[in-house]
Amino acid sequence: MERPFYTWNGLVRLDFLDHGVASSHCLHYRIPKKDGNDGIFRVTIGKNCEDYQKNILLDIVDIKKFKLFKKKGTQKLSIHFEGKTEQFHWEFPLYNLVLKKDYKKFDSPYLSDLNKGVRYRGLGISEKKPLGESLLFGKKGDSFAKGDAIVCHKVGPDCRQLESSQCQNCRYGWYQMAGNSCPGGGSKYCGVDLCGESGQPACPKGDEFKNFARISCQDGSNAGFCLPTLNTYCRNKVDLVCL
Predict the structure, then answer these.
(1) Cα(81)–Cα(14) distance, rounded to whole angstroms?
(2) Which residues of 40-74 are buried (b: 16+ CB within 10 A; e: fewer)?
(3) What distance in Å separates the CA atoms of residue 165 and residue 239, rounded to the nearest whole number?
(4) Which of 24, 38, 41, 99 satisfies CB 3.0 to 4.6 Å to 60 for a cystine?
């Protein structure tokens, strides 16, 4: 950013959680004169990024070069600037961005892979007081046994997809039903996986088991397993549960 000289530019607003409280910071930059080093990088507190003169948190002065960029295919916003004697380079993770993903066997079902193996709940997911628009759904207390778990991917007995998958939007993850040999697995529900417990889905066995025989949902099926003293039962011809 090189002109017009001495103008303030609102760059970006960053929303985040600070000890569970929703907060926002705005980043601003005043462009220096040509070949000068009197640029200013400023951080203000609050969502109103139009007013750069209030709620100032930080000023870095004497800047001569400034660059704001995001590399293609990444989920990070980069800021680089040079002062009289030193250089700064900051990176901000953009957890709200979703990248396309080529799935491979045993991959995480989540689209976002900013940090491998980590699921970010992000802003707007509060169950009682939403902080903003959110696509996530489901509550921590939802239970298959109680009947209030949300179906995020519905598959019929003939492996026909009855409802397309929305499991990437489950707030607390998802789990899969046992009792079939469908290529993409059985129906899936949002919530904490309690498979094998009484009233909960049977724990499905791996792909190697599926490859040996056609599996049907039936009482006593060994397509899934339960805790000791519990047995598998077929519910609605599609769901293998433990009782």
Answers:
(1) 19
(2) bbbbbeeeebeebeeeeeeeeeebeebeeeeeeee
(3) 17
(4) 41
Q: How far apart are CA 47 and CA 132, in angstroms?
A: 13
Q: Whole-model pTM?
A: 0.50
Q: Which tens digits make up the pLDDT trace of 171-228?
A: 788 898 887 767 777 889 998 899 999 999 999 876 655 544 455 678 888 888 999 9
Report the distance separating Cα 193 and Cα 76, nearest Å.
Answer: 31
Can you read off the two tokens belonging to residue 186?
Answer: 């059985």
Which of 146, 221, 117 minimizes the C-alpha distance to 179?
Answer: 221
Q: What is the C-alpha to C-alpha distance for residues 19 and 195, in angstroms, rounded to an integer?
A: 32
* Residue 196, CA distances (Å) to 52, 77, 151, 199, 200 in order: 56, 43, 19, 8, 6
pLDDT in tens, 39-81: 999 999 988 888 899 999 999 889 888 888 887 777 788 988 8
Q: Write out the two tokens for 231.
A: 């047995």
